[in-house]
Design brief:
This protein has 8 helices and 22 strands. By secondary structure, the protein is of the alpha+beta class. A hairpin with a 5-residue loop joins β21 and β22. α2 runs antiparallel to α7.
Length: 488
């Protein structure tokens, strides 16, 4: 192709020159210089153009495969992180609690759940004030945290309240300036970030400051006041189980529940360690009427997702087969061939090295590699493995250091690495660098061609001047001879 183009360019230049010489009106020296310079550099210009076109095709092909691999990696990662392929937890009495998967442990079987008490946070209301804008004095309010036992009255008499401070949790001091209102106190408590929220409630008795603590028995609190002698009144907000004018609306308490009949407790209604791999959100009690936590079989969605994975792998492999075939844009590309080898070995590779069951490779899930590197899905093999080791299959589709996503993601990262010269990413970097060099070479060649054209134009202009002078001399001599002939 290069020789043909070069010959064509040279023929054009020669034709122009012949036309000029035969025109009978003199030679176009500017056109002659340009045609000769173009002919001189035509072969090298054509070679650079062909090289640039080839590099464009190689960059495009490699980038296309890279984009397809990224799409596969991203979609698989999203599928795994969504938990769609894991056993779905469900609770027979949905009003008692909700359940979601947590961690990398794959749950199975069924569990009974009986909630006897929900975790609660302490709620405290101050005495009544005329209005939210009522001033409260000045000084320092101090929140101390721990276990609060409220006073109780029974047939045996009254049991006094008590407070056992949790020294592991720092007390919080809140400065109250002179002129502060009840609403200002609520604002300052909220700004302290102590885990206690405050608001002013307008009740039938007047404006009351309401404090709400976090769930859990150890998150109870007392409120102490150190008054500014010049601005008294802050002690009206102080409260403890043995003193104060406030009202304890609710005590802080832990959640109490049973899993498979075993008594458990938690400081929050969100429980992550009662059932392996499951996070429970307790919502109501069901004492004496246990409900069941079970897990839906992901077999149908697993088969559908594996079909999608097989199709996506085939799209990548088909593109690689086309590009690496004889005459393909990546026929001799080491990165493309390395990626083909990695994908071809995917089905048989052990992706769960610590698994004890039947699910260790994608081949165990029915993925089969054909002679041309493409894949098929053996649904019968998948069904057999699901029946024998459904928990192991689900574990292969978790977001851990091992599994389907981790293996595909590793292939993607290795293939797109720009520091490895034998990767697809390294090939793209190499082709891009070569394309930049071709552009530089084109510029240099154009400069050389222009330099030659200018030199030829200068020489031809000088020659044309001399020819013009010679023609003038010849004309003068011819005229003189003609005069002599007339005289004789």
């Amino acid at each position: 192709m290069v020789t043909s183009t070069s010959s064509s360019t040279s023929a054009t230049a020669t034709s122009s020159l012949a036309t000029a010489l035969g025109g009978g009106s003199g030679i176009d020296m500017a056109a002659l210089a340009n045609n000769l310079a173009t002919a001189q550099f035509a072969a090298r210009t054509d070679r650079l153009a062909a090289k640039s076109d080839k590099l464009d095709a190689q960059i495009s092909a490699a980038s296309n495969v890279k984009s397809m691999l990224l799409a596969l990696d991203t979609s698989l990662g999203t599928l795994v992180r969504s938990g769609d392929l894991a056993p779905k937890p469900s609770i027979a009495n949905a009003g008692v609690a909700s359940a979601t998967l947590s961690g990398t442990v794959t749950p199975s079987g069924a569990f009974s759940l009986e909630v006897t008490q929900l975790a609660t946070g302490q709620r405290l209301a101050s005495g009544a004030f005329p209005a939210p804008a009522s001033t409260v004095g000045a000084g320092t309010l101090t929140l101390k945290f721990g276990t609060v036992t409220a006073a109780a009255t029974s047939s045996g008499g009254t049991t006094p309240g008590s407070f056992a401070q949790d020294t592991a949790k720092a007390q919080v001091d809140i400065a109250i300036p002179p002129g502060a209102t009840l609403a200002d106190v609520a604002t300052r408590i909220n700004a302290a970030g102590a885990g206690v929220t405050a608001y002013v409630a307008q009740t039938v008795d007047g404006a009351q400051l309401v404090l709400k603590g976090a769930e859990g028995a150890r998150n109870g609190f007392v409120l102490e006041a150190a008054e500014d002698a010049a601005h008294p009144g802050l002690s009206a907000l102080a409260w403890s189980p043995t003193a104060g004018t406030g009202t304890l609306l609710a005590s802080a308490g832990d959640a109490a529940f049973k899993v498979d009949g075993l008594a458990m407790a938690a400081p929050s209604n969100t429980v992550s360690d009662a059932i392996p791999g499951v996070k429970l959100s307790l919502a109501a009690t069901n004492a004496g009427a246990p409900t069941t936590v079970s897990f839906a079989d992901p077999g149908t969605s697993m088969q559908s997702s594996l079909r999608d994975l097989t199709d996506a792998l085939n799209e990548v492999m088909a593109e690689l087969n086309k590009d690496t075939a004889i005459g393909g844009n990546l026929a001799n590309d080491t990165g493309a061939r390395a990626l083909k080898r990695s994908l071809s070995a995917l089905a048989g590779a052990t992706i769960m090295p610590n698994a004890a069951g039947a699910a260790k490779t994608l081949a165990d899930l029915g993925l089969k590699t054909q002679r041309d590197g493409t894949f098929t899905l053996d649904t019968a093999r998948l069904a057999t493995t699901l029946a024998a080791d459904s928990q192991g299959v689900a574990a292969m589709f978790t977001n851990g250091v091992h599994g389907v996503f981790a293996s595909v993601d590793k292939i993607y990262r290795v293939a797109t690495s720009t520091t490895d010269t034998n990767s697809l990413g390294g090939s793209i970097s190499r082709y891009t660098k070569a394309k930049t060099q071709v552009a530089t070479d084109k510029t240099g060649l154009a400069d050389q061609q222009e330099k030659l054209r200018a030199q030829l134009a200068t020489r031809f202009t000088t020659s044309e001047t001399r020819i013009g002078q010679s023609k003038s001399t010849l004309t003068m001599i011819q005229n003189q001879i003609a005069q002599w002939n007339k005289s004789s």
